[in-house]
Amino acid sequence: MTCRIAAALACLIFLLGGCALEPGGDARHALPKSLRDVPADKLAYRFTPDVEPLPEFETAADEKHKAVQVDFETRRAEEALLRTVISPDGQRVLAVYATRETPEGAFRLDLYSTDGRFLRNILPLDLVGAFPQSVAWSPDGQMIAFIGKRYPTNQPIEAPQQPAPLESPTPLEPSATVAPLIPSVPTFSTEQIYVCDRDGFALRPLTTREGLIYFHLAWAPDGHAIAALACKEFELDARMAEGRPTAGRPRLLTLDGQERLLDDRLTDVLPIWSPDASKVATAFDTEVMIYDAASSNPTQASIPLREALLEASARYDAERLGAPQSEHASSQPSPNGNTQTAKQNVAHPASSPSPEQSPAETPLSFNPIIRLEWPQPDKLYLQTGFVRIYANETVTSYLRWHLIDIRSQIMILN
């Protein structure tokens, strides 16, 4: 009887776990059905350098919505339309614009219908937006998020005059008032993240960390949380003085206002969500970090790529730039085809040359990670390159894409 029960249990484990015998081995190994179920510290990866980027990685021109642009050109010529953001259902448009009164770099925010009809102002008089690229609809189109800060003023901001209704084959949702009295909300001297509903109501600050500057936000694909970057004012000033992109510490924000600091290091790589909204990734120099974002017991893992990128860069220089391949590149085998385990909670040095490696030996194309894209649960793309921001232009060079294939570590069942 005991042997029969043991055999039945072994069979059940095999069926549920998808186990398989490794050639020449006795242990059974199990893989989870979805990477969503795999904690970050249980991930494995395979790195492939210098791959072709997917077409969707090309930065599209931020074209303005034509009907809204026409309204600004005809009725609001003294205001500058900076960008427009269409809701996921295609029914609403956010107009991000500047007036003569708004400070440099700041904006105001209005809500339009897609036929170009003004609906309402969203911001109270003492609040202005910051970082126009941060304005974003939630994936389901039910919420709006942006970054704003206090704007002390007693000057009234006139709402645009409501035009005559446009004829439409389908009835439009009636607007509330043209220039409603917007209730005051808490404001701060440094930039914070604000959210409101799809009609521009129920405006509230999601963050209240006076002294921190939030400058980037990204909705989770399922809308359950927001990934953000924030830094202190002196850190922002220092980066700008160096001509480098703004850098901050990655954070995870839930819609009830809870905030989790993901890492205490500064990064200029914007956090990216996994397609299943279970994880967030960012990068520090040549190290990719992955954090659990939908778990009651979150973990994190490191994917150190310095050595692999050094080798790949030496080959890249030899093949495309005609530079001699360094000894460093030939002294170790290529990481291609080798699955490695992501390391938990491990920090790695920056990509400056090591003491035994002089700057002259560093490949020209060896640069830090500057961008991540996560189009599929098991495929994380990273871009390396040189970036400097000057007064009139942004200089980039040696832009290269690489691929990380993500897998689960094989779990041995005793």
Give a summary of the structure in a few sentences.
14% of the residues lie in helices and 34% in strands. By secondary structure, the protein is mainly beta. Strands 4, 5, 6, 7, 8, 9, 10, 11 and 12 form a nine-stranded antiparallel β-sheet that branches.
Kindly describe this structure.
This protein has helices at residues 2-17, 66-75, 233-241, 306-321, 327-331; strands spanning 20-21, 28-30, 43-48, 80-86, 92-98, 106-113, 118-121, 127-130, 136-137, 143-150, 192-197, 204-205, 212-219, 225-232, 249-254, 259-261, 272-273, 279-284, 287-292, 300-304, 340-341, 369-376, 379-389, 394-408, 411-413. The protein is mostly beta strands. The strands form 5 sheets. Strands 4, 5, 6, 7, 8, 9, 10, 11 and 12 form a 9-stranded antiparallel sheet that branches. A 5-stranded antiparallel sheet has the order 21-3-24-23-22, with no helix packed on it. Strands 13-14-15-16 form a 4-stranded antiparallel sheet. The chain starts with a helix and ends with a strand.
Distance between the termini: 21 Å
> How many beta-strand segments?
25
Low-confidence stretches: 5-28, 155-180, 327-337, 345-357
Helix amount:
10-25%
Order of helices and strands: HEEEHEEEEEEEEEEEHEEEEEEHHEEEEE
Q: Globular, elongated, flat, extended or rod-shaped: what is the shape?
A: globular
Determine the structural class based on helices, strands and strand pairing.
Answer: mainly beta
